[in-house]
Amino acid sequence: MEKTLLKDKIFSLKDIAEKRGIARDSASVWLVRAVHRGEILRLKKDLYIHAMDWKYLSLEEMLLLSNRIQIPSYISLSTAMAYYERTSQVYRNVIESIAIKRSVAYSVNNTQFKYYKIKKEYYTQFEKISGLFIATPEKALADIIYLCSLGKYAFDFNAVEWGRVDSNKLVRVLGIFPVKTQKWWEKHGFVSPS
Description:
It is built from nine helices and nine strands. The chain has helices spanning 2-6, 13-20, 24-37, 51-55, 59-69, 77-83, 137-149, 167-174, 179-188, and strands at residues 10-11, 40-44, 47-50, 73-75, 94-99, 104-108, 111-117, 126-129, 132-135.
């Protein structure tokens, strides 16, 4: 999916130098000027997109782009919950992901790409669907619970479509997280671990 959806839309300094047949220094100057004019958007260091392409990105392309901006990462938290239609809480112009390198946010043309760092042993239970790395619904909810238990995330659990959540899977997924997280969920949660 990524190859067909984003192949010709995102590019690097090297790509511009090759496409225009110019030296990297000249390509760098061209890019700086194009970004200043608003023709090109800088996604992060050495990753760019044309402003017109950005304007017409689909939801799937935005999610794939999030995977690409920080590697490795997977879509999770409220973004994944909304994708699976498990919550009515949707942050407008925010795409949330889990990463193992660092917590960071990139702002691109009024859209925030937020990455929350978790320990490597919790970086699991996500799938690759048509090129997109995304948490399973229960893992997305477990990631929310984990970050809430640490005081690093706020979420309205009343917005969850509880009838569409597999409580047994959620309890199993929560089992990989620290006891502190499980106890927090027992105290604050809507689904009691058995």
